[in-house]
Amino acid sequence: MSTREQQEEGYSLRRPRDAALRDYTKRNGLEIAAAFVDVESGRKTGREHFNELLRWLKKQPVGRRVVITEKTDRMYRNLRDYVVLDELGVELHLVKEGVVISEHSKSAEKFMHGIKVLMAKNYSDNLSEEVKKGLYQKASEGQYPGRGPLGYLNQRTDGRSRLVLDPDRALLVRPLFELYGAGTHTLADLATHARTSGLRTRSGGVLAVSTIHMMLRNPLYAGWFRWGGKVFRGSDPVIITAGLWQCVQDRLDGKPMTRPGARQFAFGGVLTCGLCGSAVTPEHHKGKAYYRCFRRCQGQGYVREERLATMLAELLRPLKMSEAHARLVAEKLKESRREIADEQAQRLAAVRTRFDRLGGLIDKAYEDKLDGRIDDAFFNRKRNEWETERAQLQGEIERLAQIDARSLDTALRIFELANRAFDLFICQEASQPAPRPSGVVRTPEAAPRRPKP
Q1: Does 248 share its domain with 325?
Q2: Do 395 and 246 form a contact (C-beta atoms < 8 A)?
Q3: Interacting residues of 271 by C-beta distance below 8 A, sequence separation 6+
Q4: What's 55's domain CATH number?
């Protein structure tokens, strides 16, 4: 038996109407000692009920052991099952084929039986190929062929399965992307947020961090998906925008952000050794904070946190400008705004032109399909390519618009921060984390032995 439907239709030995095998046993003077019904695909090894049959046969005393089945492709459809059953030395009766295979069978009979096994395997492989072709065709039409991720439901419409938004979970999925993209939450924070907001798996379990990570990496939420090694533009409803998804990917691909309040030292994790490049790590000794190269470079001892603060302050002092110089730099930044705006406008216009052109190509291709000049397969393939590119261009348009609006403000803020860095550092509370210097700070000279505070 290969499918549950076949079992339900009455092929099981336990169904009275399926009397062919029972009649065969009576005619040949055989008695049914056990019946096994396999309701799984025979393409892969590991069929549960087939393995039960093997275990049962191995427990039987050595002698004549007879297995009765309808035909070859009901017994096994992969080579491993054939080899295992052959090694047991059973007598196999194929009722519909009128063949008995045993160790006493002629070589020609065994040869033909082997051919049928290969044909059965080929049949199974063909079924698999047809299924894959059907799924790939569905993907090329913009429909996700698999089970939808959390936030979606698979719903059958006109005999086909389509993705629809899950009314109970879709609205709870979007905040996960928004919070992570904003940089205010870690993956662990999102797991806590999901638990408190009531977002659960389909089985009712809480979302693990690994599950949330896979969700954030899934482009299906933004309107495209991967299938068969390719990326397809989906026609199913989206939960987030392409821009938000890309923002989340940028953060996932970068270094993880430090949780607020996680550092116990003012300069923990911000300094590297000028000799070997290793991290300068902090330690507490009798209430005082000390720093030393992680690899303990020879001749470089511990340095007090207060001493490091003084050295860093001296590094920041040259960044402070006079008021006259500060005004001049600010004026130059403002003068460059027009040049930046013109350049951004040109880039934005070029991207929008390409975006509109792709839309026109899709419309023209659709007309060609209706007129019969191109077939459905070609139209679906080109439409998917163009829609994928349009989605990428849409994200580029959003990013260019944001850059144009924020470029001058960002530059002015950076300049102001650099000009005030020394004053801010001096006025900073000792318990607060220090600002992260961009350069490599050499470990200051200190006694090679541990200092005694």
Answers
A1: no
A2: yes
A3: 279, 280, 291, 308, 437, 441, 443
A4: 3.40.50.1390
Q: What is the pLDDT of residue 294?
A: 66
Contact between residue 382 and residue 417 where contact means Cβ atoms under 8 Å apart: no
Average pLDDT of adjacent 10-residue blocks, the chain of 453 residues: 39 50 85 75 59 85 83 73 79 86 82 76 68 75 83 81 86 89 84 89 89 92 83 84 86 61 61 72 78 71 81 79 78 71 81 91 90 88 87 79 59 74 64 44 36 34
Q: How far apart are CA 69 and CA 71, in angstroms?
A: 6
Residues 62 and 162 in one domain: no
Please report the pLDDT score of residue 353 as a whole number: 92
CA 95, 97, 99, 101 dihedral sign is negative
Residues 6+ apart with CB under 8 A from 38: 1, 2, 47, 48, 49, 50
CATH of the domain at 156: 3.90.1750.20
Three-class secondary structure of residue 228 per DSSP: coil
| One-character DSSP codes across 266-323 | TTTTT-B-TTT--BEEEEEETTEEEEEETT--TTB--EEHHHHHHHHHHHHGGGPPPH
Is-contact 100 106, C-beta < 8 A? no
pLDDT of res. 408: 60
Angle between helices 242-253 and 376-427 (to 10 degrees): 60
Q: Considering the domain boundaries, does residue 374 fall inside one?
A: no
- Residue range(s) defining the domain that contains residue 161: 152-253
Total domains in the chain come to: 3
Which pLDDT score, from 0 to 100, does residue 216 have?
Answer: 93
At residue 39, the pLDDT reads 56
35 within 8 A of 13, measured Cβ to Cβ: yes
SS3 state of residue 68 = strand
Residues 25 and 56 in one domain: yes
Residue 381 vs residues 224, 232, 281, 366: alpha-carbon distances, Å: 14, 9, 55, 12
Helix 242-253 vs helix 170-181: angle between axes, to the nearest 10 degrees? 50
Q: What is the pLDDT of residue 155?
A: 84
Model pTM? 0.39
Q: Give the tokens for residue 32.
A: 């049914």
Cα maximum dimension of the chain: 112
Per-residue pLDDT at 127: 66
